[in-house]
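To whoever is covering the structure queue this week,

Two jobs came back overnight. Logging them here so there's a record in the thread.

Job A:
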Amino acid sequence: MRSELAKAVKKDFSRRFLQQFHGFVPQEPTGALRGGLLYEWQHSPDLSCFVYLQISQKMYQDCFMVEIACSKGEFPIHLVAFDPNEVRDGSVRFRLPELYRDEWRQRSRRVPWWWIGPEITPKEITARAMARVDSGALPEKDEGLIPIDQALPLVEAQVQDAVDRIKRFGVPFFQRFAEAKM
């Protein structure tokens, strides 16, 4: 994601998330989590619940993802984010859209990200860049992306949708996970 958009997404997400979910505390993302935002809610002495905002590291993809995790201690970075039913050693980590798979599974096999502007695939970027090269022009850095000034107003709706889905799907998951642990 382009840096201007990443800053806007993180700022808006942090504000909205912390207004909505008072029990969560921002944590300092380390290692592979750097570049995103991490929040922790200590449900009980032996269960922490996490929400991680992952910003796409690809400059040609203006999108973000929300991950959900539960563990006995720290964010379970060692787990691959696949399935909400894949609990290992009392920990789970997965992408939030897995909780509403029925909404998107018919359209795509890929887990949907939140896009700022139209979704663009690496294949489309390559095709556009090659077309420019074939015409004698150099590929542009932001090939295929909408201009920043047009993208910034789109941030709010995408962030709000992510926060709404955390409330609708993520929080009930945390509650069910905690109940199953008791």
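Job B:
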Amino acid sequence: MRLASFLIENRQSWGVIEGSEVADTGALLASSYPTLKAVIAAGAYREVAAATREAQRLSVDAVRWRPVIPDAGKIICVGHNYEMHRQETGRAKADHPSIFIRFADTQLGHGGDILRPRESTMLDYEGELAVVIGTGGRRISRESALSCIAGYACFNDASVRDWQWHTSQFAPGKNFPSTGSIGPWLVTTDEIPDPTKLSVTTRLNGQVVQNQQTADMIFDIPTIIAYVSAFTSLSAGDVIATGTPGGVGAKREPPLWMRPGDVVEVEIPGLGCLRNTIADED
């Protein structure tokens, strides 16, 4: 099942993607499940499937996409999780995942404008695989970690590099408003039985700038979930971005920064293609 959050004539809703159409399932189930996060928390997929048969259908071009989980309680990101990227950044090998946090208001959906802030011109792309938690908890074991996942989505952890490099802490460069994106939709785990058999491709203005298999992660998804859930309780709808492959713009010669008018795409076969334009912040 493919699930998405969107706006229809400024009304917030969510629904099921079926080919080139969107079923406005949220309009029928709003009293019980006002958001997609509520659906995931309740595990109400059978109810959603039944309601979808009666829901209004719209063209995918008729909606404005929101982040898959607009109200995510936590957005947890993993840094330097592909060997090629670790090497290009000169980071030492580590025994544990490098973790940083994004705020929910830094995210936008498919088709929206990633904003280059006034404070910097060093805006970089980072295509990633995102995991959305279904069944949360504390101290989740590696063995049960995959069963806690609701689904997967494409993620662009776009970064304001000079602000990221102000100190050893990444947070400033990762939390300017509307600098990251997730979508276009969430694909449930029944359609993605093995997340290690995916590939992450990032294109800037049609040119491939990143392309790597998820099997190349240094810390796999079960390890990440077990590690993160040891220090914080995970909840339904929380998002974990699993790291970006090598090829980031900051490590190219000369550096390749995203500029207003550019188009950036993150594509993962089976999950779709997350597409955003770059614009200057007003």
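Note for Job B: The first strand starts at residue 2 and ends at 8.

Please reply-all if you pick these up so we don't duplicate work.
Q.
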